[in-house]
TrEMBL record:
Signal found in the keyword field: yes
Signal peptide per UniProt: 1-15
Domain of life from the UniProt record: Eukaryota
Species of the source: Didymosphaeria variabile
Protein's recorded name: DUF4360 domain-containing protein
Matching Pfam families: DUF4360
Keywords for the protein's UniProt record, in alphabetical order: Signal
Length: 238
């Protein structure tokens, strides 16, 4: 597991327009510690490397793959990953996750349904978030079955349990190919002002039904063997 420890404001001035708000980033910030757990990401199995444009990529291992089929045990149908990011930054600043992308690969038979769910929240923080929009795009570079068509799936409303953003995407078989799940949160949950904070990301992939003759796999990127996520960070002075 790797993490880039500090970035400077001049480096952030080169940010892409997508993350222009990161121009107000603090002089320094760092990831102190990354803890991961769950059937989809045992400790030490993920890589995180903070880029210089306010994007935080997370790379999962092949453990984060849900599988169903005639000879597959039930515990393989659902994989969960809880990530805790201990982040510190200069006094007088706060940050939020305002968008996220998930890329992966699915091969699911007719009658099989796949879901990708993500939650974002700060430990102990009280705030309010509004509805995100989640959209799905199939990749033209990978073959799709003739009867599989690209779909656009709106996300459910955000749930406000300890306030957190919650988004989900559904893939209905038959489908074979790469997908990209995009989450956009209109009003973000902000970290405590000028304090070290614990950002939590809880992700899950699952396939149903169990015990049928239909088969499926969900989550691992076929090209790289990795399931990737990118979190987009916005900073502000507080």
């Amino acid at each position: 597991m790797k993490s880039l420890v500090a970035l400077s404001l001049p480096a952030l001035a080169l940010s892409a327009p997508l993350v222009a708000d990161t121009l107000s980033a603090p002089p320094a910030f760092k990831i102190n510690k990354v803890v991961s757990g769950g059937s989809g990401c045992p400790q030490g199995s993920i890589d995180i490397d903070w880029t210089n444009n306010g994007i935080l990529p997370i790379y999962f291992s092949k453990d984060f793959t849900a599988t169903v089929g005639p000879s597959v045990t039930a515990d393989q149908s659902r994989k969960n990953c809880q990530i805790n990011l201990d982040i510190s930054y200069s006094a007088g600043y706060s940050y939020s996750v305002y968008s996220a992308d998930y890329t992966g690969w699915a091969d699911i038979d007719s009658g099989v349904k796949g879901t990708v769910v993500a939650h974002y929240y700060f430990s102990g923080e009280q705030a309010t978030v509004t509805n995100p929009l989640s959209s799905f795009y199939s990749s033209p570079r990978l073959p799709l079955r003739p009867h599989s068509l690209p779909i656009h799936v709106p996300t459910q409303d955000i749930r406000l349990t300890q306030p957190q953003g919650s988004t989900s995407l559904t893939l209905q078989g038959p489908f074979t190919g790469k997908y990209v799940k995009k989450d956009d949160v209109a009003v973000s949950v902000w970290s405590p002002c000028g304090q070290q904070s614990l950002l939590n990301v809880n992700a899950e992939v699952a396939l149903t039904p169990l015990g049928s003759y239909a088969s499926g796999q969900l989550a691992v990127n076929k090209e790289t063997g990795r399931f990737a996520s990118q979190l987009y960070i916005r900073w502000k002075q507080c």
